[in-house]
Design brief:
By secondary structure, the chain is an alpha/beta fold. It is 35% helix and 21% strand. It is an enzyme of class 3 (hydrolase).
C-alpha cells in the first residue's frame, strides 16, 4: 500500500490518513479467547507476539492504547447474544476468563473497556476515551477477526475514525471467515495494513 506524507504530521496509508495520534485498540485479548482450554479460545501465540510488538511501538511514542474485554455481571446483559452463543456465559465478572492475557498486560494508564456485545463501541465509553486522548484514527487488532474485530472496525468508521486493521495482530479459529472479514473491511470500512507497513508509518510520525 502506498504511503505518503500529506503534511508535517499526517500520513496516508492506502486511502485513509493515519493522523498524528492514532490509538491502538486491542479487542478481547482476554484469557477466554487466548487460551486453548477455553471453549471460546484457541492458540493465538503469533497474534499475541505481534500485538506485543505494536504495544512497544505505541508506548515508545506515547500514543493512546485501549483494551476491551467481554464481561457479564448479570443474566440480563446481552441475553439474546448469549442465547445464540452460549459459550459466552463463561465470561463472568471476576472469572479468570475476562482477564487480559498477561503476555500483553495493560499499563495503569491504558484503559480496559468492558463490553457485552461484539463492537467495542456499542454501549461503552470507548469513544469518550478516544476523544479524551485526542485520538484521530484507530488501529484495531485482537480477537476474533470475523466477530468483534470486524464489528469494532465498522463502528469505528461510523464514529468517523479512519480505521486501520493489522491482520498479523488479528486471529480467528475459522481461517475462511478471517480472510473474508479482512477483505470486507478493506473494501468498505477501513484499511488492512501489514504490521511492517503500520510500524513504518508510525516511525514517520
Amino acid at each position: 500500500m502506498n504511503k505518503k506524507t500529506t503534511n508535517d504530521h499526517d500520513l496516508s496509508v492506502g486511502s485513509l490518513t493515519l493522523g498524528s495520534r492514532p490509538a491502538l485498540v486491542i479487542i478481547d485479548m482476554s484469557l477466554g479467547f487466548t487460551q486453548s482450554e477455553s471453549r471460546l479460545g484457541g492458540d493465538f501465540t503469533a497474534e499475541v507476539d505481534n500485538i506485543k510488538h505494536l504495544l512497544e511501538q505505541f508506548r515508545a511514542r506515547d500514543l493512546p492504547i485501549l483494551y476491551t474485554t467481554v464481561v457479564y455481571h448479570n443474566e440480563q446483559q446481552a441475553r439474546v447474544f448469549r442465547t445464540r452463543l452460549p459459550d459466552l456465559n463463561i465470561l463472568q465478572a471476576n472469572s479468570k476468563w475476562v482477564q487480559i492475557d498477561p503476555r500483553i498486560t495493560p499499563r495503569p494508564d491504558e484503559p480496559i473497556i468492558e463490553k457485552c456485545w461484539a463492537s467495542g463501541f456499542f454501549k461503552t465509553d470507548l469513544h469518550t476515551h478516544l476523544q479524551n486522548k485526542n485520538a484521530d484514527s484507530i488501529v484495531v487488532v485482537g480477537l476474533t477477526t470475523s466477530g468483534c474485530v470486524r464489528a469494532t472496525a465498522v463502528d469505528g468508521l461510523q464514529h468517523d475514525y479512519p480505521v486501520f486493521v493489522v491482520p498479523q495482530g488479528c486471529g480467528d479459529r475459522n481461517l475462511t471467515a478471517h480472510n473474508a472479514s479482512l477483505h470486507d473491511i478493506n473494501a468498505k470500512y477501513g484499511v488492512v495494513v501489514s504490521l511492517e507497513e503500520l510500524c513504518g508509518a508510525l516511525a514517520q510520525l
